[in-house]
Amino acid sequence: MDWIPRAEALEARYAEQHGELDERALVRQGNLAYAAALARWMAGDIRAAADWFRRAAARWRESWRGGEAWGRPIGALKASLLAGDDAAVDEVARWTLELGAATSPSPIGRYAAALALLALRRWPEARHVAESLRERDDFPRDVGDALAYVSAADVVGYVEAVESVVASFETRTEYLEGVPVADTALVLDLLARRRDIDVALPASVVLPAQTD
Description:
Elements: H1 3-15, H2 23-42, H3 46-63, H4 71-83, H5 86-98, H6 107-119, H7 123-134, H8 141-152, H9 155-170, H10 183-194
Helix pairs in contact: 1-2, 2-3, 3-4, 4-5, 4-6, 5-6, 6-7, 6-8, 7-8, 8-9, 8-10, 9-10
């Protein structure tokens, strides 16, 4: 894929929004900004990618209206991590937990909690939540495994799990805004490094050439 034109097209769609934005429009802008950020990252423009990740996090957080729309806190947290904005990561992670993600009956809510706890380096709590995800049939087993292995500092288990996550992205036919990037693996890599697991992600067409 020619990443620069793809990013520019997404950014142009983002700029088309005018006037007061309702909930759905904010979510759509978050999606566009995040996809543009991923395209910029794949093109090697990390600085521009970080700016767009920040926009995505802001739009998704603005769109939160309560309920079980856990994809929005998840998106805001992932975007903040990928932007390299430690202050925002800490703030969004605490906000996510304050929303009650850790006690949500939804696996997506629990996923939000696991990401938040790992981001805050609360390893025992993160492991407890991640283990609850591994027991479910309605959540990707390899993602649950990766979260649990990061929290437990299990390098061998993590490597196997994250390779499975990357492989699952390689076989997908649908991606956010049509941008084929394994963002979940990128986020897991950042969280693993917080746990002092310094292992390179596998080479893949759905990952940047360099992830450090």
